[in-house]
Amino acid sequence: MTEIQKKDTLAYLDNNATTPLDPAVADKMCWFLREHFGNPSSIYPIGRAVKEIISQARENVARAMGAQRSEVFFTSSGTESDNWAIRGVLDTYPEKREIITSTIEHPAILNQAKYCEKKGVRVTYVPVDSFGIIDLDFLRAAITPQTALISIMHANNEIGTIQPIEAVVSIAREHGVLVHSDAVQSFGKIDLDVAKLGVDLLSVSGHKIYGPKGVGALYVRKGVDICPFIHGGHQERGIRAGTENTIGIVGFGEAARILIERGKKDRERIEKLTDSLKKGIEEKIPKVKFNGHPEKRVKNTLNVAFPGLESEAILLALATKGISVSTGSACSSESEEVSAVLLSIGLRPEIARSCIRMSLGRFSTEEHVQAVLSELPDIILKLRQISAFYPEE
Ligand code: PLP
Q1: 387 contact partners, CB below 8 Å, separation of at least 6
Q2: Best of 103, 110, 163, 185 to mutate for ligand 1, by most ligand atoms within 8 A of CB?
Q3: Which pLDDT tens digit goes with each residue over 306-315?
């Protein structure tokens, strides 16, 4: 960590928003910047060397998700991958004008879906239960011959709940419908295997696995047709144009290599830390409620409600103690809106407004957990004392 990170971020507990760049990734990116500038499309050695390095990065990202190298296409972000999956499939099958998604997707899916609705596409939103698991019967009943794509996220960014993607795929197969999954939050947090999941398309992002921001990938299963989203040159085998973000891809590839090497160990350690944080909060703070599925969830994420309080006040009080947490998805944390995910799992708006999200990662330590456990109970106690809204029982 740099001096600024040490000083300003004593305990960074917002790894679902973004992860710190792994120092080994930074080293690899610096090496690449110093040694290589070629355009990978150029056929002389300076270009071919970069092409070879990109190919290795693609191999690493593919291996980290159980895919083949030819099935991975680099994009500018998880957001672009999500947008591309929906628009690309709709453009490939212009006779099919329906898609199905869920109510708890990331805005990268929900706002693309809204845009498609404006263009005449019918979108069905599958509801979820109180743990955030989608209703499979509703999904099955929503499929029609017009359905082009089902897009259901793998792990939710706010509450961590993992969806039964294999079951979604088996329902979709009965009707010959393609399945996309936004795996931006599961990649690196669970053992992700596209072959086991059976999906046709899957989105991932570099900055959630200790790689750089501004680079992502879309997995496109061999044999699946998808129209380009960005038109131009012949890069990415002609379906995602634009001179490659070579430095970003190199960093993403290195982050994926490290994930293969130490992902399992990291996950075990992070799960233990998260469990001890949860236990500590339960023991030290009365009247808290944890959101999300108790088991079927990524084991780094805690979303907790403090009924009667405003999450913004908790977040700011923690920030003054050098502890960074979040009120929800990074993309909506600056807006006043109540989390659509928390409303979807049935929380009342005032409860949803009382929730904070803590998400641990590779660089989280026991000291960070202890910092939260020593500061948070006092903060909650004081806020409860001054809160006019604290419910009387
Ligand atoms: N999907 C999910 C579930 C996310 O959590 C995020 C980012 O928070 C994205 C998509 C967007 O990824 P990116 O930040 O790479 O655009």
Answers
A1: 308, 309
A2: 185
A3: 999 999 999 9
